[in-house]
Write a structure and sequence with these properties.
Strand content: 15-25%
CATH superfamily: Glutaredoxin
Strand order of the largest sheet: 2-1-3-4
CATH architecture: 3-Layer(aba) Sandwich
Order of helices and strands: EHEEEH
Number of domains: 1
Number of strands: 4
Shape: globular
CATH topology: Glutaredoxin
Bound molecules: FE2/S2 (inorganic) cluster
Structural class: alpha+beta
Distance between the termini: 17 Å
CATH class: Alpha Beta
Largest sheet: 4 strands, mixed
C-alpha cells in the first residue's frame, strides 16, 4: 500500500494560478492535512501545462482535470480517496 502513492500535480503557471489554483492549492493542502492523508500522496506543482484556456488544471494519477473549482475539487478528492 505504501508504494501506491497518489500523484497529485497542480498547475502553477500564471494563468491557472490566477484562475483558481492558488485557492485550490490551499484547499488540497488543508484537505490532506485534516484527513491525515499527506503520506499517501506525492503532491507537486508544475509549470504551465499548456491548457491555459481550460484551466485551472490539476492532474491526479495521470488524469487531467480542467476548469477545477472548489466544488469540483472536493468531489474529485473524495472520489480519489474514497471518502
Ligand atoms: S498555466 Fe496552467 S495550463 Fe497554462
Amino acid at each position: 500500500m505504501e508504494n501506491d502513492k497518489i500523484n497529485i500535480t497542480i498547475c502553477l503557471g500564471s494563468s491557472c494560478f490566477a484562475r483558481g489554483n492558488s485557492q485550490n492549492l490551499k484547499f488540497i493542502q488543508e484537505y490532506l492535512q485534516q484527513r491525515g492523508l499527506k503520506d499517501r500522496v506525492n503532491f507537486k506543482g508544475q509549470l504551465c501545462s499548456k491548457l491555459c484556456n481550460e484551466g485551472p488544471v490539476i492532474i491526479i494519477n495521470g488524469k487531467t482535470y480542467k476548469e477545477v473549482n472548489k466544488i469540483k475539487l472536493e468531489d474529485i478528492l473524495n472520489k480519489t480517496f474514497n471518502v
